[in-house]
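Troubleshooting log. The previous structure file for this entry was overwritten by mistake, so regenerating from the original sequence record. Sequence copied from the archived sheet and checked twice against the printout by T.R.
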Amino acid sequence: MARGDQIYVYRELFNIGGIYEHHGINCGDGTVIHYRKPSEVIERTSLATFSRGNLVYVKQYTEGFCFVPEVVVERAESRLGEKKYNLLFNNCEHFATWCKIGISDSKQIRDFVPAIAKLNIDNLYQPVQESLEETNSNNAQRLLHQALADIKVVWDRVQPEYKQTLAEMEVWDKVARKAVQMNRDDLARAALSKKRNYKQRATQLEERLDELAKMTENLLRNSQNFADLEFAQRRDY
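Regenerated output below.
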């Protein structure tokens, strides 16, 4: 384990029978920069605070580009204090991967929410709302897990489309700039029109992803509340 390594530990997922990887960047001086929980702020903490006594693993990148250690740490430091945590869109793994290879990505989220292209997101609200309003803890847990299963977000379909849309925006922006340099205002206007269309689509896709992220996080938090309630009831007996 060395300076600039992307490291991770396994932690319990809201005590609902699962685990997740918590990622950070090793600064090489006994500290780690990561999206700290539960503050949801990017902070520099001790390695002990990051690991919480768990084994620490190093994320391996056997192929492809990685920044040199100094740059990795500099990128991590540039986002200290950030408060933009989002479970599905900007979590600890997204942050650490961005520092390491320049791409904001989370493999565990892609694995967690496989694509179901025919899913109508609007239909998810009813089971979600029912689970949040349910007073019987057993039935509420069933509804929560049903809703989580249903939110197998069109992630592998929507996220790549979102990224491709952003890439198209950049391409048409370059085309417009080049057209201006060539004094071709007609081509510049056409390129800017294409860019606006892609920007509108990107905004729509981002809103859908953010909406799903908030729904999923609400469900996980309520799962924790119901688990605490069941524990308290058992203790009373």
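Confidence is low (pLDDT under 50) at residues 114-122. Archived copy saved in two places this time.
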